[in-house]
Every structure is written in structure tokens, then in C-alpha cells.
Amino acid sequence: MLNTTAHSHPDSCPALVLNADFRPLSYYPLSLWSWQDAIKAVFLERVNIVSEYETEVHSPSLAVRLPSVVSLKTYIKPAVYPAFTRFNVFLRDRFECQYCGNNNDLTFDHLVPRSRGGQTTWENVVTACSPCNLKKGGQLPKKSGMWPAQKPVRPTVYQLHKNGRLFPPNYLHESWQDYLYWDTELEP
After folding, report:
1. What phi-psi label fits residue 60: left (phi over 0), alpha (psi between -120 and 50 degrees) or beta?
2. N or C: where does the chain have the smaller number of CB atoms within 10 Å of the terminal CB?
3. Strand order in the sheet with 47-58
């Protein structure tokens, strides 16, 4: 499928992917597929098209409007706990240094330093800006006098999704609005 019509280039037409219960698979990062992946899933009958763009792609024998929202035909049970990654630690801590509140030049800090046997776990790692991380160095919180704003805990996927709603993506197509809930007070 090479030729296109309408105003948008296909690469600027991602599809919002909803689970079978019409909730996004994830909020942050927002569950999006490229137009190619969305079309492939439609032809493999793995998704239902919920909404479409005006943009079409054409093959010699077929014209197809690009899906803007698709829902999976089979429900995928979401994981309860997210993977431990640097990004997820930052998201748990809302992209703020847990010592000073700065949101620039972020790293992560081990409360009990690795040099003192501290492990890289949810309960021992917090988001820290580089200056605070350097200031604390290899010291324990009591010795450094630096305590995180919130106790580090293992978050649930729901808690990360809730935090992710505080950082809506730069691009939201109007057809997505009914499926995205940026109000942080909503329950799962």
C-alpha cells in the first residue's frame, strides 16, 4: 500500500490501542501502534476498528481508511506490578528529584548505597537530580541528612498509569478523547 489521500501522511496517523474492555493498554507511554501494525492487526482479525482517520492508503486493488482507534478482540489481563526500569522509577516519582523537587538532569539514587550492600530494588531506589545524587554520594540518608520526599515503594501498574495521566502526550487525536481519562481521581 503506497499511495495516500487526505491531509495527513500515514506516519502521522498512529492508532490508539484499547484492550477488549475499551481501556488503553497503557497510559504512559500511551499504547499506540503505527498505521502498518494497525492495518496488519485488522487484516489478521485481531482487532476491531473503533474509529478512523480521513487518511486512506491504497494498493492497486484496495483503498483503506487508517484506523485511529482499535480495540483488541481478546482481553489481555494487565500485569499487577510493572517491570523495574529507570523510566518506571522516574514515573513513580513523577519525574522529580526526591530530595529537592528539581526535574532536570535526573538519575536514580540508592538510599542504601550499593557500596554498603544496597540493592537495586523499588524500595531502595529513588529519583534524584545529579547535584543531589553527588551531594549524597555513598552516604546513608541519616549521615547525609538527605531524606526522600516519599518512601520508595513497589508501585502497581495502576499507580504508574495514574501518574502517567499527569503527563499527557503532546499529540491527542480527537477520536481518542472518549478513551483517555486524564483526571487523576478516576479509579481503575
Report:
1. alpha
2. C
3. 3-5, 47-58, 63-72, 15-18, 32-33
Residues 6+ apart with CB under 8 A from 140: 111, 112, 113, 116
pLDDT range class, residue 175, cuts 50, 70, 90: confident
Across 54-69, b (16+ Cβ under 10 Å) vs e yields ebbbeeeeeebbbbbb
Pick the closest to residue 2 from 59, 61, 63 (CA basis).
59
Strands 63-72 and 106-110: unpaired
Backbone angles phi, psi at 58, to 5 degrees: -130, 140
The predicted model scores a pTM of 0.69
Summarize the confidence of residues 148-168 as an average pLDDT.
Answer: 89
Owner of C-alpha cell 501502534: 33
Taking a C-beta distance cutoff of 8 angstroms, is the pair 13, 37 a contact? no
Q: Quote the DSSP letter at residue 24.
A: B
Tens digit of each residue's pLDDT (9 = 90 or more) over 7-62 = 478 888 999 999 999 988 887 778 999 999 999 999 999 999 999 999 999 989 99
Give the end-to-end CA distance of the chain in Å, rounded to a whole number: 39
**Contact 28/170 with Cβ under 8 angstroms?**
no
